[in-house]
Design goal:
- This protein is of the alpha/beta class and about 220 residues long.
- It has two domains: about 150 residues, UDP N-Acetylglucosamine Acyltransferase, domain 1, CATH 2.160.10; about 45 residues, no CATH class.
- Strands 1-3-6-9-12-14-15 form a seven-stranded mixed sheet, with no helix packed on it. It has a four-stranded parallel sheet with strand order 2-5-8-11, with no helix packed on it. A four-stranded parallel sheet has the order 4-7-10-13, with no helix packed on it.
- It binds coenzyme A (COA).
- The site of coenzyme A (COA) has 13 residues, from strand 14.
């Protein structure tokens, strides 16, 4: 058993609402890990790129998404191009309206820049979530439906609301450390397929035993 074909846009022919978005045509400054899917019941999930907003190549900010993430409909990644210059009397962007105003175009250095947006591996993003520029979301995190994420999210942490606040940790610190060592998403696909039962349950003793055995192999 090796599971679905990761090279297919629609890995399950009968389910055209889930799309492996690493198979969309390449786009500058966007990296998406294998098996990460975007699901959309109302529109074509192939339109995923439409939800990466204000993403301009000349600014150079990247959207990097890890492997095995689940991204629900209503996602919005707001990128750095959305930010206006804020240290003047006005934030009004005169330059974009032409008619001579373009000579007041700010330099890239004068614009607020928060860096790349980085989503880890095995992250579940609920419906209608907005992620602000420069946010890093750790492996195994969950973003609750309707959240606006304005601060980095630690691994295996559930956040929710506007602004998104920590709801709870998914596991104890000890377990999270072990999971971050396990990095199951980097295994070859045969090993993942063989261990789906193990991965979809949480038994700390079995996890420690697995890791010990794995290190010896
Ligand atoms: C985040 C989520 C997984 C939490 O589930 P849970 O562990 O069962 O959490 P609970 O319902 O017990 O709620 C725990 C706390 O989180 C809060 N909470 C739950 N969902 C929230 C949300 N969307 N936004 C803000 N806070 C939320 C609850 O109010 C509760 O707060 P309290 O501790 O102050 O009482 C779930 O609420 C969610 O948003 N799932 C996403 C569903 C989705 O969008 N799926 C898309 C298709 S794949």
């Amino acid at each position: 058993m090796i599971g679905p074909d990761k090279r297919k846009l629609y890995p399950n022919e009968k389910l055209k609402t889930v799309c492996y978005i690493s198979n969309l045509p390449d786009r500058p400054n966007v990296e998406i890990g294998e098996y990460t899917y975007y699901s959309d019941n109302k529109k074509s999930p192939e339109k995923f790129y439409d939800y990466i907003e204000h993403h301009y190549e000349f600014l150079g900010d990247k959207l990097i998404i890890g492997k095995f993430c689940a991204i629900a409909e209503g996602i919005k990644f707001i990128m750095n191009g959305a930010n206006h210059k804020m240290d003047g009397i006005t934030t009004y962007p005169f330059n974009i309206f032409a008619g001579g105003w373009e000579e007041f175009t700010p330099t890239v250095e004068q614009l607020p820049f928060k860096g790349d947006t980085v989503i880890g591996n095995d992250v579940w993003i609920g419906q209608n979530v907005t992620i602000m520029p420069g946010i890093e979301v750790g492996d195994g995190a969950i973003i609750a439906a309707g959240s606006i994420v304005t601060k980095d999210v630690s691994p295996y942490t559930i956040v929710g609301g506007n602004p998104a606040r920590v709801i709870k940790k998914r596991f104890s610190e000890e377990t999270i450390e072990i999971l971050l060592e396990l990095k199951w998403w980097d295994w070859d696909i045969e090993k993942i397929s063989r261990n789906i039962n193990f991965l979809t349950n949480m038994d700390i003793d079995a996890l420690k035993e697995f890791l010990d055995k794995d290190k010896k192999e």
